[in-house]
């Protein structure tokens, strides 16, 4: 069942939740978007940078459902409590948040032109990971391999 508690959701938006987190992602991605526009003169490239920067957080849904079960409450999702937001996070699924993906994107981009959508994907991914690294977890937290090792220790 989907629950939409609009007053509570708006209250969360004004606090330190997912919406505020996404606004900061957009702000941090802006220099990358401007840079790709300077190189390509294509508005499409700018949109790719912003789209990737924002869509990466869709993987928070996996952690939300692991924490709350199959019921969805917008306010709970925006609050980010299922990730221990504002606290040190020891483990989260967040499969799109990984330095391994950054390495793969760099390798893909080595032979691509500036007008390639892959360049926009890379330039959207970099600021997202930088901000999350600074605001949420350390360097090791964003390695999938590290999270698997920690998960193994957490399991009974």
TrEMBL record:
TM annotation in the entry: 18-37, 49-71, 91-110, 130-149
Domain of life, per lineage: Bacteria
Keywords on record: Membrane, Transmembrane, Transmembrane helix
Descriptive protein name: Membrane-bound metal-dependent hydrolase
Phylogenetic placement of the source organism: Bacteria, Candidatus Woeseibacteriota
